[in-house]
Design goal:
six-stranded antiparallel beta sheet, 6 strands, Immunoglobulin-like
Length: 85
């Protein structure tokens, strides 16, 4: 029988693969998990870098509410979320 690493150790696949985990609440609140760094920040655009790709968040009055080693929380009037390689 074959098992993936995530199945064998009962770990979420996104952690094993170092992928982003996004929690989006309406158009005003985003939590990004498993990010590496903030590449660009302004009140209308935030680019967050991961291990393999980037996430671009556009809108107005964008703010970083909190951030830690693995999670960043953003608020504002979010109009667009895109993935970039």
């Amino acid at each position: 029988m074959r098992f993936s690493v995530s199945e064998f150790f009962h770990l979420p696949q996104e952690l094993v693969l170092d992928d982003f985990v996004l929690h989006i609440l309406g158009n005003h609140h985003v939590i990004v998990e498993n990010y590496k760094c903030i590449q660009r920040f302004s009140c209308d655009c935030i680019i967050i870098k991961g291990k393999k790709q980037k996430i671009g968040i556009r809108g107005t009055n964008l703010r970083i509410c909190s951030f830690g080693e693995n999670e960043i929380e953003l608020t504002g009037n979010i109009s667009d979320v895109t993935w970039k390689n």
